[in-house]
């Protein structure tokens, strides 16, 4: 019906009028007769409905002749809701239908009604699925119904996306005259067969939707009870015998001492200790042990568990019941409301020194609801709170009298003690034949006490046979759901998972595409989430910001472990604990969210439905033969991880629904047939990173929806000329290694890059290799946020014009969105032209100089008015006190790396109020520097500094007793000192310098980690980490 309306209302009928007007032109008379006959035949064909009705065929309205495709798709994307894997694709599907109702295609007769009807059905089912997924242990019929609905929703969305693609192709064509009309008509006739096929699919989907709706009634799913009483999985931690614990003495004694200490005898405020960490690390056990050790110092003690859904009135009553009080005080307690309970508990504690454990707090709101029951009564009372959420822990311990303690996993020694003690009764009784497999099991446990105890309990009831233990090791993931010995661990991990919002569950499950111990980069993960459609704009926040917030939230909730914490306190990457990975693999297989293949993962056979996302961790001929018999046309993402036999992978043309294609580190990618890549019309993320590829497939320029193209660590020196047609591309990453180091060469900037107005991140381009026109066009990229460039002209006048045009482009970008600028000069190419950069780049947050060139002076634009600059890495010929004064006034500077080749004077003292926010300071003495340097810190200098790296010239420092002033850095936790000296400096002087620095660090109240190295001798004097180990 909609196809008929599309052709007749907006197409052929209007063209009949064109032919009538053209009849007055005698030159067209012979051709016009044939055209009229052809038109009548077309009209007769399209006036016959293909199917009736077509609820989704509204997508084929020819409105795209009047609206560009981009605007149409953006309207749909804005309305797409974030979806949980357990909800299938109902969220985004309902969102797409909502977007269609707002577009012109819905104005056609009958179309709006059909879309609204379909949306209503799916919205109701969406609500039902959300309701059912709150069940802790869903009924098998509920799981079956959700599975049917999920697969149906996937299929409906696939059909909608095909419609959008066909409309978009037509919408890209410009309006033309009379002949253009017939060219368009011919194109439509060529695709009529595929349109009929899609229409047939829609009719089948409508029938399936009706069947799914009827099954819900047949199963009587609405009659299923939703309340479950479960045993608290933390109970065992409360009554464990002290003799059975390992690795807890140190933390217990440290925290107990802190709880009892009173630095200022005149102030006896209440202290709050928050213990935070991953589920199963032993937070409750540690809190209980501290409680046992110090409870004799308090008038009254109590322990209460909050749980995910706190009942404040019950919590208050539990606390009151554990307090010494007269019988009359609690009369009528059952009739007290919440406020009465809080008031009475506060009254009861007002004149007592109390010790209270509040276990398992899940939210800041829960803490806020109960904290006012604990009075500030000047009796040195103490509260211990445990939580899995870092934000909650900070809220509990907020203030000068609080402390947040982050739980750490058991080390290898303590893990083995706990493991063997549970199985054999002694840590020395493990047979030699089981030691290797034991190490593998403990590696998977990752120092998680609960996991070690649970698996040890399982093995204690099995034969002491190597094959049996190997079988348990291989099946740990599946055993989580099936073996009662692992119920406790499964419940603890599932508590954290079930507490996540649907969108966070989706983002977490997505991590199982990566193998064990894989370091998952934040930027890569965020871009993939967006490409998959998991992320929507929220309350004025863009998708990038929303996705990064999800990443940090998973860290704060202890679902993943942070890796590479940066100067701003944010993690650059994360890892998934092996036991959590087993859980999310199990959940993912159950929801048919991701299918895993290779390296022992054989979940292809376990899924219920078509493959939707595929992670290939290894491929050989056997796996290739399995994939050859699978329907791969519905796969939305394909990740191939470091496969050496990629030639066996099925051809790309079979993966027609891909949004994400990631070949990172596939060194043998050149063996794979890339033909058909242009057919991946929905592809948004494409990575060839680390593949040794030297030339891009030519047809990549037809991937018009591509948003990220990652070519880092490849041998690609030049991009196809038509790459500029990828107007939606946001991230174009070429030869950047790690975060800031560009390899030799760089990539040529394509001419016409100024047309790629959506570009936000560019890395690895070589200015000198590029044309002057391309360099100039950089200034047109008004959306650019990160620009990483290479400049290697060696200062030759031949390239002076390139430098001038680059400066002009940078000046244009100053007033736009540029936040990060990195310029690498591998051959000491001068970049003093940057001194003329203007106006002030007010949005700039990061500026990095790479290479061996040293600026003659601090650039004029580096002034305190640059209020957004947080990271500065700069090389200066001379380090002078005036430059340090200016840098010290930068209001937002968090990290400063300053390299110099000479110094104004040997001794520099940082004094007064400066560097108010600086957390990391690195002072680097150039290899060719002949000047001595001795830097000291006076009171008030760098008050927030946490990490310090600096050189110390031993012979100069000797005159001042090798004093650095580390005690004036109250937040210092990491110091690295490089001893420099003249050739004739004695070993005794250098040893005395090292001893003095070590003494100064040891007397610091933070006991910072300390590393001292001798630059001339090339060896290390001291490392506090090695001493601890």
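Q: What amino acid sequence fits the structure above?
A:
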């Amino acid at each position: 019906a909609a196809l008929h309306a599309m052709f007749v209302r907006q197409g052929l009928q209007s063209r009949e009028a064109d032919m009538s007007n053209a009849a007055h032109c005698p030159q067209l008379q012979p051709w016009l007769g044939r055209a009229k006959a052809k038109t009548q035949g077309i009209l007769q064909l399209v006036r016959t409905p293909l199917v009736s009705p077509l609820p989704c065929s509204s997508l084929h309205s020819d409105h795209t002749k009047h609206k560009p495709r981009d605007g149409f798709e953006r309207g749909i994307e804005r309305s797409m809701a974030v979806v949980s894997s357990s909800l299938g694709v109902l969220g985004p599907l309902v969102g797409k239908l909502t977007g269609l109702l707002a577009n012109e295609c819905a104005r056609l007769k009958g179309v709006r009604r059909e879309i609204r009807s379909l949306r209503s059905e799916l919205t109701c089912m969406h609500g039902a699925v959300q309701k059912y997924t709150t069940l802790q242990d869903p009924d098998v019929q509920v799981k079956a119904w959700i599975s049917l609905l999920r697969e149906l929703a996937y299929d409906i969305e696939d059909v909608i996306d095909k419609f959008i693609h066909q409309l978009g192709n037509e919408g890209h064509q410009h309006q033309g005259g009379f002949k253009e009309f017939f060219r368009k008509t011919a194109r439509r006739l060529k695709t009529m067969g595929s349109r009929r096929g899609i229409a047939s699919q829609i009719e089948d989907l409508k029938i399936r939707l009706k069947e799914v709706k009827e099954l819900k009634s047949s199963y009587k799913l609405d009659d299923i009870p939703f309340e479950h009483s479960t045993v608290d999985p933390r109970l065992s931690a409360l009554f464990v015998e002290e003799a059975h614990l390992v690795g807890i003495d140190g933390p217990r004694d440290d925290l107990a001492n802190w709880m009892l200490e009173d630095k200022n005898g005149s102030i006896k405020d209440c202290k709050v200790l928050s213990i935070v960490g991953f589920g199963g690390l032993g937070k409750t056990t540690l809190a209980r042990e501290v409680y046992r050790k110090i409870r004799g110092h308090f008038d009254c003690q109590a322990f209460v568990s909050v749980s995910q859904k706190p009942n404040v009135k019950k919590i208050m009553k539990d606390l009151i019941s554990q307090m010494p009080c007269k019988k009359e005080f609690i009369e009528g307690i059952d009739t007290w409301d919440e406020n009465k309970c809080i008031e009475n508990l506060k009254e009861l504690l007002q004149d007592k020194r109390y010790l209270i454990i509040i276990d398992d707090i899940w939210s800041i709101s829960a803490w806020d609801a109960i904290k006012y029951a604990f009075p500030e009564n000047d009796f040195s009372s103490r509260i211990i709170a445990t939580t899995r959420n870092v934000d909650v822990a900070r809220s509990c311990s907020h203030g000068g009298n609080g402390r947040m303690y982050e739980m750490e996993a058991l080390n290898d020694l303590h893990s083995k003690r706990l493991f063997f003690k549970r199985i054999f009764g002694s840590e020395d009784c493990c047979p030699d034949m089981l030691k290797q497999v034991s190490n593998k099991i403990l590696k998977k446990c990752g120092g998680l006490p609960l996991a070690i105890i649970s698996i040890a309990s399982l093995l204690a009831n099995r034969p002491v046979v190597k094959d049996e233990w190997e079988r348990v090791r291989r099946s740990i993931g599946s055993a989580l759901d099936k073996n009662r010995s692992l119920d406790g661990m499964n419940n603890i991990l599932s508590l954290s998972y079930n507490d996540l919002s649907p969108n966070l569950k989706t983002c977490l499950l997505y991590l199982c595409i990566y193998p064990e111990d894989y370091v998952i980069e934040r930027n890569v993960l965020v871009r993939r989430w967006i490409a998959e459609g998991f992320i929507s704009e929220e309350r004025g926040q863009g998708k990038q910001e929303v996705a990064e917030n999800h990443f940090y939230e998973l860290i704060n909730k202890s679902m993943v472990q942070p890796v590479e914490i940066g100067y701003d306190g944010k993690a650059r990457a994360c890892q998934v604990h092996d036991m959590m990975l087993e859980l999310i693999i199990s959940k993912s297989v159950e929801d048919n969210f991701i299918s895993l293949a290779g390296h022992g993962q054989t979940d292809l056979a376990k899924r219920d439905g078509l493959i939707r996302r595929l992670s290939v961790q290894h491929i050989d001929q056997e796996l290739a033969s399995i994939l050859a018999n699978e329907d791969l046309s519905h796969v939305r993402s394909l990740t191939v991880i470091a496969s050496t036999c990629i030639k066996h992978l099925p051809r790309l043309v079979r993966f027609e629904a891909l949004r994400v294609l990631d070949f990172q580190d596939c060194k043998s990618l050149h063996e794979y047939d890339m033909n058909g890549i242009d057919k991946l019309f929905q592809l948004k993320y494409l990575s060839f990173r680390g593949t040794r590829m030297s030339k891009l497939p030519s047809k990549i320029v037809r991937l018009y929806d591509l948003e990220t193209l990652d070519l880092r660590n490849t041998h690609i020196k030049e991009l196809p000329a038509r790459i500029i047609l990828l107007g939606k591309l946001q991230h174009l990453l070429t030869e950047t290694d790690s975060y800031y180091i560009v390899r030799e060469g760089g990539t040529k900037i394509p001419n016409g890059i100024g047309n790629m107005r959506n570009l936000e991140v560019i890395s690895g381009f070589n200015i000198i290799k590029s044309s002057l026109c391309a360099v100039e066009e950089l200034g047109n990229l008004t959306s650019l946020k990160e620009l990483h460039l290479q400049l290697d002209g060696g200062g030759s006048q031949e390239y002076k014009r390139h430098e001038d045009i680059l400066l002009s482009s940078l000046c244009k970008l100053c007033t736009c969105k540029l936040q990060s600028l990195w310029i690498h000069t591998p051959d000491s190419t001068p970049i003093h032209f940057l001194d003329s950069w203007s106006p002030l780049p007010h949005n700039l947050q990061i500026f990095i100089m790479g290479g061996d060139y040293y600026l003659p002076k601090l650039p004029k634009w580096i002034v305190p008015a640059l209020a957004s600059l947080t990271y500065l890495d700069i090389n200066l010929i001379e380090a002078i006190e005036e430059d340090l004064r200016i840098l010290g006034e930068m209001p937002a500077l968090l990290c400063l790396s300053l390299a110099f080749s000479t110094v104004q004077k040997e001794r520099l003292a940082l004094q007064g109020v400066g560097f108010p926010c600086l957390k990391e300071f690195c002072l680097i003495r150039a290899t060719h520097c002949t000047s001595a340097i001795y830097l000291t810190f006076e009171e008030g200098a760098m008050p927030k500094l946490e990490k310090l790296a600096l050189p110390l010239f031993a012979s100069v420092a000797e005159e001042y007793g090798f004093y650095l002033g580390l005690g004036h850095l109250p937040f210092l936790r990491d110091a690295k000192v490089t001893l420099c000296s003249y050739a004739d400096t004695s070993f005794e002087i250098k040893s005395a310098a090292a001893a003095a620095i070590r003494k100064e660090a040891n007397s610091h109240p933070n006991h910072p980690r300390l590393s001292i190295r001798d630059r001339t001798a090339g060896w290390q004097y001291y490392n506090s980490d090695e001493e601890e180990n």
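Q: And what stands out in the fold?
A: The first strand starts at residue 271 and ends at 276.
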